[in-house]
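User: Structure with iron/sulfur cluster, tokens only please.
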Amino acid sequence: MYRLRVKYGKYGVGKYLSHLETIKAIERALRRAEIPFILTSGFSPHLKISFGFPLPVGYLSESEFFDLFLSSPIELKTFLNETEKSFPAGLKVLQAKYVYLKGKSLMSIPCYALYLVKGEVNPPFSLEVLEEKRKKFLSLRKISYFYRGKKKEVNVIEDILSFSVKARGEKIEFQLLLPLGGKRNIRPEILIDSFRDLFFKKTCFKIKEIWRKQVCYKSNDKLEDLLDFRGDERFKGDPHLN
Amino acid sequence: MKQIFWNEIEDFLLEVEKPSQYLNNEWNSIHKKKAKLRMVLIYPDLYEIGLPNLGLQILYHIVNQKKEYIAERAFAPAPDMAKKLRAKKISLFSLESKSPLSSFDILGFTLQSELTYTNILDILELSQIPLYSSQRDKSYPLVIGGGPGAYNPEPLAPFFDLFVIGDGEEIILEICDSFVAWKKTSLQKADLLRELCQIKGVYVPSFYQFKYKKSGELKEIEPKSFAPTKVRKRVVNDLNQVPFPTSQIVPFVAVVHDRCNLEIMRGCGRGCRFCQAGMVYRPIREREVKNLKEKAIQMLKATGYEEIAFTSLSTSDYSQIETFIKDLTNYTSPRGISISLPSLRLDSFSVELANLISKTKRTSLTFAPEAGTERLRKVINKGFLEKEFIQTVKHVFESGWRKFKLYFMVGLPSETEEDLKGIVDLATKIIDLGLSVIPSKEKGMLRIVLNVSPFVPKPFTPFQWCSQERADEVLRKKEFLREKLKSRFINFKWHDPFQCLVEGVFSRGDRRVSLALYKAWKKGAILDGWSEYFNFSIWERALKESNISPSFYLYRNRLKDELFPWDIIDIGLKKDFLWSEFEKSFRGESTPDCRDKCIDCGICSPKGPKNILAKEVVRREE
Ligand code: SF4
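Assistant:
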């Protein structure tokens, strides 16, 4: 058995697909590509595949992941070519890499996501003002908000790894690095909404696009792309890694 | 009508539910730019119901196979989307090119159920197309309808320019060709319709005048001099000769029957007396095993689906079914693809088939006994002996199945308390049997899903002369069954008798009921097939204001020679044949499957259609 870690992107109409719809679309695309996947045993056999953290509906992404288990090693180039032909509009395989068979599952690796949020400002404001407010925002200790009727809190120093903002004319762009998955998860638009509501008028800017640009894990205090997470060193001897 | 831009729709697309149903890029959808003719095929219900419809997918591919023709698709928008479109004054659009429906040459509606008819009016209005055929000149698209609902097109007559009766594979291109020729001329819409009504299978309602007696019954149907006196159903004689789409569209959003649908045969010879499909789709036409196998594999490759269903009215009747299943499982099993058989006969053979396709997973089997006693089953010609049935059920449990889905009808002609008790009896016997056969640690898995629907008599069936059971009486029967069927093993499901009442009015309605349809829609009736949207009080008012008495259409036994609105259509079956079947039903006399013995219903002819069975295949054992 081989374990292939695949990075894919969600573009254009892809943002309207729910996580379940995405999974189904990808599984069918892998079947069309006749990839030598492994089936689970049990009552209703299905592809042995496991997906990374769900992307909320409405987000675009350049960094989604799944691990696919294969019965025979397929050349990475062939994999990319075949899936290029079989993936539907809105979904695209970007990279793939073999990883240790018995490493941690994607969802159990503590991760961080880099988001790019694009919006429109009206009326435009100066970079100085933005920068000043940004600093003020990051000097807060806690930010609280309501999510699905529940009060939640963000610990600014611990949870916001980075928060930058640029504006040009009517365009505004934020970049945020935030914890991903489980209880730690923070959605970028929540911070941006709080930022706006604290310092500006509610209507002054509007989010147009949210991109998940990269998903990383921490390795010796450095952030590395999740694609490079090979798993548990104990399984290093795995012969099928290239 | 102004062009629609995708970004206008995207502006609010994240605000509606299941936005992925409005996308234009499902796998295998076809996108063409230029053409001599643009048609939009519309299923007037939500995408999740309409997308898998095989008729629509077949026509979509046949039209698009022609280089110079385009077919796109549209569905009824969900209420939240419809509201947005109205508020923003955006027309309903086709999926592929997001064009307003009014920009197409032809709108082709699939008429599947009477309870989708208000959706048709809504779709026209959302597209700013006048509802009535008489209000549309040649600057508007030609509005045509086809599918099972077209066998009694009269309740929709004023809204449609024409109906297509019967199999659509061949006639659709004939209509397109005539349309293109006409489009080049300066002739009017009436000229086009005059030309089209000469095509076998085309019914142009405006060329026929319906006259009524004082009593309300139909007196005569008067065709214009140039129009045929009867419209004959189109039949494709040999299904192996017409295209069947293997590149079926794979939706993003979850839909009903989310799988490859392979039609293995059309028509049914069993002759159940309540079943319209069994009568109107005659004769039996099976596809060849070789052809099917090829198609099945192509389909699975082209779609990536993990399931394939063999569709037909009675799948276990396909003469080579065992060979075909065994053959195909060689391909499907190693790939983890499952096969489903949606309509199984109630016998041991079917259980064997079901066992074949699911060697490990045995969850749920579906059967339709329809009636509770042997007597009533003879009346409806769905005869099977209780003894055999119990034998079959035992076999089912012993094979490892734990869940049953059973379909019954109430309100069948001649039904008595005995027959209702029969349903309870059958269910009880199944449970007792289950409890005695199933090993104790699995007993908790035993489950019977009991679906009961009120019987609605349909045109072109032996019961077309019958009265429908009154809704209050149906409700009483429901309560009776619910009371008696209280068991932790039984899951009781029920169709709303008031939905069936509306269905019944339109099922055997004439041109006059179209007014009630219009009024009900005006008052807000929409998506009537969905119990969460169906609103009977609207219909009551609409029927009343239109001076339509539902009892006339529903609660009346017709005389033998009454002229029916649908008699304008000739489905090939003799009315005498249907009547003799009706009479036989009183006597509880059964009629054999016509594969065993032709009972001369009238459809087959030496040069025309006939029962075609698949050739026997000699299998080499691998
Ligand atoms: S004519 Fe005879 S064989 Fe043909 S469909 Fe009718 S009953 Fe069956």
